């Protein structure tokens, strides 16, 4: 299982990459493996400001649909448009080409509430 050390994580199996005041968000390798083949990613919250834990979209796999939760409060500034035609990128490259949204966050203190790679490993290994 791939859990990059340079990212932050949530208990909802999302990864967060912080660059300045923008967070890139996707689902983890563990999450895509549990979901199976991703067939659709829906995000209709671009240009909206959401609070942490609010649903920003959904990811649909062959066997289930899962909500996606904002890991930080802020404005959804970008959706990875390539996922509309190639949602399988979430399976093949969850930490790269399979990213989902970018959020301009408004409360940097919330970053402290995210999990380190070590903490997230404990979550998935239980």
Descriptive terms for the model:
alpha+beta; 126 residues; 6-stranded antiparallel β-sheet; 3-stranded antiparallel β-sheet
Could you explain the architecture of this structure?
With 126 residues, the protein is of the alpha+beta class. It has one domain: RNA polymerase II/Efflux pump adaptor protein, barrel-sandwich hybrid domain (OB fold (Dihydrolipoamide Acetyltransferase, E2P), Beta Barrel), CATH 2.40.50.100. The chain is 19% helix and 35% strand. The chain has helices spanning 29-35, 82-85, 89-92, 117-125, and strands spanning 8-9, 14-19, 22-27, 38-42, 49-50, 55-61, 65-69, 74-79, 101-105. The strands form two sheets. Strands 1-2-3-9-8-5 form a six-stranded antiparallel β-sheet. β1 and β2 form a beta hairpin. The radius of gyration is 13 Å and the shape is globular.
Q: Give the count of structural domains.
A: 1
CATH architecture: Beta Barrel
CATH superfamily: RNA polymerase II/Efflux pump adaptor protein, barrel-sandwich hybrid domain
Proportion of residues in β-strands = 25-35%
Roughly how much helix do the residues carry, as a percent range?
Answer: 10-25%
Quick description:
The chain is an alpha+beta fold and 126 residues long. 19% of the residues lie in helices and 35% in strands.
Write the layout of secondary structure elements.
Blueprint: E1 8-9, E2 14-19, E3 22-27, H1 29-35, E4 38-42, E5 49-50, E6 55-61, E7 65-69, E8 74-79, H2 82-85, H3 89-92, E9 101-105, H4 117-125
Antiparallel strand pairs: 1-2, 2-3, 3-9, 4-6, 5-8, 6-7, 8-9
């Amino acid at each position: 299982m791939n859990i990059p050390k340079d990212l932050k994580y949530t208990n909802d199996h999302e990864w967060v990459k912080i660059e300045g005041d923008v967070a890139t968000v996707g689902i983890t390798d563990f999450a895509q493996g549990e979901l199976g083949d991703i067939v659709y990613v829906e995000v209709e919250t671009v240009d909206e400001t959401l609070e942490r834990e609010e649903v920003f979209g959904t990811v649909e796999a062959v066997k289930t649909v899962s909500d996606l939760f904002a890991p930080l409060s802020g404005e959804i500034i970008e959706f990875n448009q390539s996922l509309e035609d190639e949602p399988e990128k979430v399976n093949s490259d969850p930490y790269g080409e399979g990213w989902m949204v970018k959020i301009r966050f408004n409360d940097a203190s919330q970053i402290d509430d995210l999990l380190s790679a070590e903490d997230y490993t404990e979550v998935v290994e239980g």
